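User: what does the whole thing look like in 3D?
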Amino acid sequence: MFKSTLRLVQCSFKNELAARNSSTIGFIGIGNMGTHMAGHLVKKGEKVKVFDISQEAAKTVKGAQVCSSPEEVAQNSDIVFTMLPNGDIVKKTLLEDGVLKSLPKKSLLVDSSTIEPSVSQELFNISQENDVRFIDAPVSGGVTGAEAGTLAFMVGGNQEDVEYVKPILLHMGARVFHCGKAGAGQIAKLSNNLILGVCMMGVSEGMNLGIKAGLDPKVLHEIVNVSTGRCWSSETYSPVPNLLPNVPSSNDYKGGFNIRLMSKDLALAERTAVNSETSVPLAATAHQIYRALISNGYGDKDFSVIYKFLSGKK
Amino acid sequence: MFKSTLRLVQCSFKNELAARNSSTIGFIGIGNMGTHMAGHLVKKGEKVKVFDISQEAAKTVKGAQVCSSPEEVAQNSDIVFTMLPNGDIVKKTLLEDGVLKSLPKKSLLVDSSTIEPSVSQELFNISQENDVRFIDAPVSGGVTGAEAGTLAFMVGGNQEDVEYVKPILLHMGARVFHCGKAGAGQIAKLSNNLILGVCMMGVSEGMNLGIKAGLDPKVLHEIVNVSTGRCWSSETYSPVPNLLPNVPSSNDYKGGFNIRLMSKDLALAERTAVNSETSVPLAATAHQIYRALISNGYGDKDFSVIYKFLSGKK
Amino acid sequence: MFKSTLRLVQCSFKNELAARNSSTIGFIGIGNMGTHMAGHLVKKGEKVKVFDISQEAAKTVKGAQVCSSPEEVAQNSDIVFTMLPNGDIVKKTLLEDGVLKSLPKKSLLVDSSTIEPSVSQELFNISQENDVRFIDAPVSGGVTGAEAGTLAFMVGGNQEDVEYVKPILLHMGARVFHCGKAGAGQIAKLSNNLILGVCMMGVSEGMNLGIKAGLDPKVLHEIVNVSTGRCWSSETYSPVPNLLPNVPSSNDYKGGFNIRLMSKDLALAERTAVNSETSVPLAATAHQIYRALISNGYGDKDFSVIYKFLSGKK
Amino acid sequence: MFKSTLRLVQCSFKNELAARNSSTIGFIGIGNMGTHMAGHLVKKGEKVKVFDISQEAAKTVKGAQVCSSPEEVAQNSDIVFTMLPNGDIVKKTLLEDGVLKSLPKKSLLVDSSTIEPSVSQELFNISQENDVRFIDAPVSGGVTGAEAGTLAFMVGGNQEDVEYVKPILLHMGARVFHCGKAGAGQIAKLSNNLILGVCMMGVSEGMNLGIKAGLDPKVLHEIVNVSTGRCWSSETYSPVPNLLPNVPSSNDYKGGFNIRLMSKDLALAERTAVNSETSVPLAATAHQIYRALISNGYGDKDFSVIYKFLSGKK
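Assistant: Here's the predicted 3D structure for the full assembly of 1256 residues, as structure tokens:
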């Protein structure tokens, strides 16, 4: 059912890129995510040029050519990825630091940063005016997924561009969703993460309620997972310690998806909601509570630490 | 995995009840749920006595003996079910209307109403003092599940009592969870429904956000269902019309789980939270918004109507 | 303007009680509030009998007769006050501990506890059936007001009963509001305290926002106090330390109105809201956040400590 | 007390502007507010040049010179006011439409729009680089205050600039608060309006709770106004119809402060909060509920219409 309606780019058998002998891929932004993503490209045999404001960081991608500026990355590249902290930095990099001007005509910009959809749309339009192609391709899966090469890409842009770049995306990830036109990748990611941020807090509240009232955490966990409260946050990422192995809650809420990143995504979702006069009451409440946790010393933890806060366990 | 840790009552092979030739089962409260539940008991060959304050309602259970008082139901019954609107009515029925006094010693009271866990615990204690057994056994699955005989029972009480009654519960439902001691069935149900009430609103907000921002509802639905936003409310009960057949949202939010019942469960969850000084911020916000919908004309709708309210579609 | 529309009991010139020579007043519940309230009655020359489950506490009211049971307090008293933690205890004291049965006919019960309005109404009705008069008369002003004798009484019940007891109330307080019939005193108190609980959090959020963004706390405080954000919580009880002398925030949030009491009042307000299907979204959110603070170590502080929590100052 | 700590610009007796014979004042943005504000300047004898994208609108200021572009307004003006819908439009007007380039050196830009504080700070810096002075001076008082000339100006910028322009501001308003350096006017306004938006909803919830539970609206109104729930929203702008004359609630919620404007201010407050990692939970919840009202047909009403929504009165 899924494949028929979602425009998954399944049949890229006769793909342009697959036929290339010597394309060049640029990668700007070698942080926790970028280092693994660019690393996968190198391992898959691609010719990769990288840049980061930290030369140290840039050098972590073994086998890639380290450039001294974003502009240098852009020159003669067929595809340039950006993986940057926010929309202002993406705009500055593409527009002020010379990437867009230096890119060959018809080349493809792939922004995998999570930014406001309206900025993605703006960058799509400016790119088009410069005869450069642009897609937004934010990812889900976090650092773990980046390292394992199992990211999911949510992509907005023209169908032919998505098909063109899909084999490259699959070097770094396991799934590619074409969500619609420019900005749609961002919108899909933010919509999903809004639901995630709310459900995680809902699971934390429900589990805390039951456990405080005397239920065995394991019993409640299992009941929820086969009942109407079933959700990803409970089944695979339970915020209650020691119900699941290898989740942040079982490791003092280390690793995983930082509460600051969840707050960032919720802030972006709310800005998008403001633009369309859309009301998101639970997301907004959840956002502010996550933010209050940051003010109270939980800023370095996985977002499931909301359970610890609610339960008051020290 | 599930079976090993959850005390599912699997092995009732040598069950007392199975051995009985002529036990009698009482059923008090023949509403939308009770009529189907008692009906299943009759169909499975049990001897059933029923009572409801509406004689009309009581008569809907074909093949059952209609009694003129709760007391009459209790006399000579081995098991008496109650399926009533709230804790005050359950208490009045059992304590003031003579059920507890009229029940044979060692007989079993099964309260399938959804009420405050502390009231279930109180009734368990009073029953014990009267040499009557008591379990709380609220259900999930709604009217549809009651009619189809696929309810899930969440049970609190003594292990031997749960084993004893399990074959009877399975006449009316598909699953029996023994959640812990007295009140634990209520706590488990409320904890789960709290998560449900929050997740449904989260899904409604996220879907509305994406759709208002231009995404195809089908595409977003499918992405969420394979991503971290995945949950029962999205996969099997989507609040967005016409994504799934046979769900209330595709039928003008008719049927399903009434928004008043969700509000009732959230109110009970919050009372339970107050007793243990537990904070449930999203549940409380969700509760009040569901309640605002009731004030604004949505009181007869399924609780997924929150999507319609948020999207402002008339 | 105020006096004309609010049924303040102004003209009690020909007051029965004033004419009495030797009435007796009982006081049950000698806690932080009760000790001061009963003390004022003694100081004003009333003959006072007291009871508390702690004999130690009861003895703190110098000049009062300490009784060994609530029943003993009731015998031969003209008026009996109750000042108890919650509705269940009030009910038990009046109905099970023999107060109602032992009171002389036509005597007056004054419940100054803060409890659910529906319980006040129930007690009014039961009292009437027993030929005893009943009013609910919860107070505002806290321990400070109790000690200073400046409490405000919000009273529900019959007009003649309010007029009868008003001189006695004014021994302990500065104002008496007759809010309506039985329960109306509780409703008025809860409605007001709901607004208070919300405004205090609103002021804390707004002040924290401005101060974090660089404003001088004094300047912002003064602007708010002459602008549309003006409110009691800002003008006379600012949650920001060192803007006002003699408020809890300037004394490490000690004293004042404990966050547990605010949480209790918000819980009662929400129960009252449930009964009338009324939505109180901000109150509910505020309630849960106050409650989360209790779980995180702020349980002994004044409710204005929400500012400290939001600002993250340690 | 107030005057001593708040840097109100009291003693501008020897003011430069007062000494001028023939300064020129520009005014860009002749909407509901601007038409009255510019009109007051004309009435006070100032030489005024105006521009609006609607020539119709610009012509409503009798006695002012209508310009054909923002640039024309700027040329030879000593002071230029902007009163525009949002930060993007202010930036475009000043930076792209030539205002900053055309202004005489040392002249003063006064932005009375309500925009993000960070944008005000950016514009202050750019102006300084161009040897033009800049202050942010958002107003409170609404259209009524603009018409009556009783606005309050909350000003951020250099002390000497505030003193310089104060006599001009007092042509249009009754009070001038110097809140701090660049952006401080915006921060003060947003902080205050956050409190306002929360308190109004709190008052609406509390009044609705009491009235639904049976209290006389007048009695409750008067009790709140002399109790701890006292606030501007209750005392002078009650959301409950027919308690006060001449407020929007008594006129079907027409006029006043539109719910979209309140939503805009809360959105700006939240963005400012995000920048400083500050949590504003009640403001965020209130914001989303106001926004839900817009989606449900209340978009043209005063923000106190929240009472009508909560009470469910049609």
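In plain terms: The first helix of chain B runs from residue 2 to 5. Chain B has two domains: 2-181, 188-311.
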